[in-house]
Amino acid sequence: MPESLDIVLAGEPVRLLADRALHWPARRRLFIADLHLGKADSFRAAGIALPRGGTALDLGRISALVDATDADSVWVLGDMLHGRTDLSSWRVAWDAFLARHRHLAIAVVDGNHDRALQQAGLDIERLGDAVHDGPFVLRHAPTRDPRGHVLCGHLHPVLKLPWQARTPAFWLQPGCTILPAFSAFTGGHPLRLGQGDSAVLCNGNALVQVGAR
Question: Which of 125, 120, 37 is closest to 73 using CA atoms?
């Protein structure tokens, strides 16, 4: 089972990566969705006991993907944040990530959890609700768009096969590709394959295709 899968979307070669990211070689860009920075920290601040280090782990995964693909930009398809932005526990990890990747351009499409993004001071570019770039329309929530093939997130798609646990997946539909949630600390929405749909399961180490493309 491969760690990456080369496919063509809307006539454009892209690469699906086993660690829940999509690489667009022509732009040297990584797409991820639903990073939810600081989610576990916000839960702990509210008195819910959860393990520490989730944000640092997720940022380390992004670093590894940037190094492996030689990407010069990372675009987050919504839900960059989750909850409070003033918690040093995850801000320290974010500042260390920026220091390591001084020349990496980071941009985010607004998601439903990103209301505090403007005041967060994360040193990133905000792209608004939707961006049309080449054959793609970049959004947070899935919808069809006459301008191009939609790349989005929001649903946290997962799929359970008979021989394995519920696994994050890319959900490929005609005109729309929904990325799995990048954050390791997220729930999942069981996907149902419709006419012309397929899925690519990604467990962090390998990819498995389900359905015809």
Answer: 125
Q: Specify the CATH number of the domain 4-210.
A: 3.60.21
Cα gap 213→198, rounded to integer Å:
6
Sheet hosting strand 73-76, strand order edge to edge: 4-9, 12-17, 21-24, 29-32, 73-76, 105-108, 125-126
pTM: 0.90
Per-residue pLDDT tens over the stretch 129-163: 999 999 999 999 999 999 999 999 999 999 988 87
C-alpha distance from residue 69 to each of 64, 73, 186, 203 (Å): 9, 11, 25, 18
Instruction: Give dist(CA 162, CA 185) in Å, integer.
Output: 24
CA separation for the pair 202, 132 (Å, rounded): 27
Q: Where are the domains of the chain?
A: 4-210
Cβ-based neighbours of 153, under 8 Å, separated by 6 or more? 33, 34, 77, 78, 79, 111, 140, 178, 179, 180, 181
**SS3 for 178?**
strand
> HSE (CB half, 13 Å, CA atoms) of 18?
12
Q: At a CB cut-off of 8 Å and minimum separation 6, what does 11 contact? A: 135
Q: Which residues pair with 17 in a beta bridge?
A: 4, 21
User: Do 153 and 140 touch, CB atoms closer than 8 A?
Assistant: yes
Residues 6+ apart with CB under 8 A from 188: 156, 157, 158, 166, 168, 181
